[in-house]
């Protein structure tokens, strides 16, 4: 099955970390249409040279949905506490340029931006066509989107409390977007923004033997480091030039050979020469990469 010409599509990207030129190039290659949907899974700021430029570009996109990342949360917490030790810690974690750019903003622009960041959600659920070559005609797929990952046992328990259990093949193919959104409310914000090993090293239990069920899409963990945490990676997390790539994780016999997690952090935080920004189209999993060039 292939993506139909003219069909609406859903794109995801994450962890640009201030590298606005690379993000702009990746989006230019992917060319989402004005009626398509773009999800940005956080960590727009810190590390790179133009964090507010990333925010400006992201907010200019038509039909964009932005989620909170741990670096946006760190920014907000630091400014709210106004504590010098917290400020030093944020700067050590890549926040110095972000802080400088914020300080240079006019008061009204600064206040509006802080309000916008504070209102960012921590998760989303989206259903798309499944246009991968191996998918059945007319197949659909739920995707749970968040910055870092989920507490999968907690999610399954929340679904059970709502009367939603696994189907006959062991997955949750019949869980609706409403079911998943209701269950995601019970997730700890700390996990959604920071989790790593517990998420990447264990199956979610959401995809069944027939390969159907929700797939979790997250960033936060740079792909060049993903091997420290993940099992059953589809690749090493880098290409032949040792640049970061998006990675599907977790295909087993129990999932019908389908990955139940996708890491979309292409290691932009590392900068040149290993960092990239990537954009994925969820329907067919096509990916576009923009390398971070020297000086960017």
Helices, strands, pairings?
Blueprint: E1 10-13, H1 20-30, E2 37-40, H2 51-60, E3 64-66, H3 70-81, H4 84-103, H5 107-118, E4 123-129, E5 140-146, H6 152-161, H7 177-184, H8 189-194, H9 197-200, E6 215-218, E7 247-249, E8 261-263, E9 276-281, E10 286-291
Parallel strand pairs: 1-2, 2-3, 5-6, 6-8
Antiparallel strand pairs: 1-9, 4-5, 7-8, 9-10
Helix pairs in contact: 1-2, 3-4, 6-7
Q: How would you sum up this structure, described in words?
A:
- The chain is of the alpha/beta class and 296 residues long.
- The chain has a single domain, classed as Purple Acid Phosphatase, chain A, domain 2 (4-Layer Sandwich).
- The strands form 2 sheets. It has a 5-stranded mixed sheet, with helices on one face.
- Strand 9 and strand 10 form a beta hairpin.
- Helix 3 packs across helix 4.
- The radius of gyration is 19 Å and the shape is globular.
- The termini are far apart.
- The model has no long low-confidence stretch (mean pLDDT 96).
**Number of DSSP strand runs:** 10
- How big a fraction of the residues is strand? 15-25%
What is the SS-derived class?
A: alpha/beta
Query: In CATH, what is the class?
Result: Alpha Beta
Instruction: State the end-to-end CA separation.
Output: 38 Å
Give the biggest sheet: 5 strands, mixed
Mean pLDDT: 96
- Tally of alpha and pi helices: 9
Based on CA inertia axes, which overall geometry fits? Answer: globular
**Share of residues in helices:** 25-40%
Strand order of the largest sheet: 3-2-1-9-10
Q: Which radius of gyration do the C-alpha atoms yield? A: 19 Å
If you consult CATH, what is the topology?
A: Purple Acid Phosphatase, chain A, domain 2
CATH homologous group name? Metallo-dependent phosphatases
Q: Supply the CATH architecture.
A: 4-Layer Sandwich
Q: H/E element string?
A: EHEHEHHHEEHHHHEEEEE
Provide the number of structural domains: 1
Task: Pick out the low-confidence regions.
Answer: none
């Amino acid at each position: 099955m292939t993506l139909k010409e003219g069909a609406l599509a859903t794109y995801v990207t994450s962890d640009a970390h201030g590298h606005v030129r690379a993000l702009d190039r990746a989006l230019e290659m992917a060319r989402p249409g004005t009626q398509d949907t773009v999800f940005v899974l956080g960590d727009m700021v810190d590390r790179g040279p133009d964090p507010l430029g990333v925010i400006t570009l992201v907010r200019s996109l038509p039909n964009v949905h932005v989620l909170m990342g741990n670096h946006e949360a760190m920014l907000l917490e630091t400014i709210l506490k106004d504590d010098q030790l917290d400020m030093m810690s944020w700067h050590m974690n890549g926040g110095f340029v972000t802080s400088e750019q914020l300080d240079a903003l006019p008061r009204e622009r600064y206040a509006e931006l802080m309000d916008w960041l504070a209102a960012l959600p921590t998760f989303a659920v989206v259903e798309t066509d499944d246009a991968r070559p191996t998918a059945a005609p007319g197949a659909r797929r739920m995707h749970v989107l968040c910055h870092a990952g989920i507490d999968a046992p907690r999610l399954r328990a929340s679904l059970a409390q709502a009367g939603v259990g696994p189907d006959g093949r062991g997955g949750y193919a019949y869980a609706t977007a409403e079911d998943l959104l209701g269950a995601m409310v019970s997730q700890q914000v700390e996990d959604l923004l920071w989790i790593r090993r517990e998420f990447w090293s264990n199956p979610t239990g959401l995809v069944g033997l027939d390969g159907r069920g929700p797939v979790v899409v997250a960033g936060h963990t740079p792909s060049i480091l993903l091997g420290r945490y993940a099992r059953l990676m589809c690749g090493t997390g880098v290409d032949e030039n040792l640049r970061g790539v998006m990675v599907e994780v977790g295909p087993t016999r129990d999932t019908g050979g389908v990955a139940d997690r996708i890491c979309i952090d292409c290691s932009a935080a590392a900068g040149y020469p290993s960092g990239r920004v990537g954009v994925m189209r969820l329907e067919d999993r096509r990916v576009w990469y923009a390398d971070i060039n020297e000086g960017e």
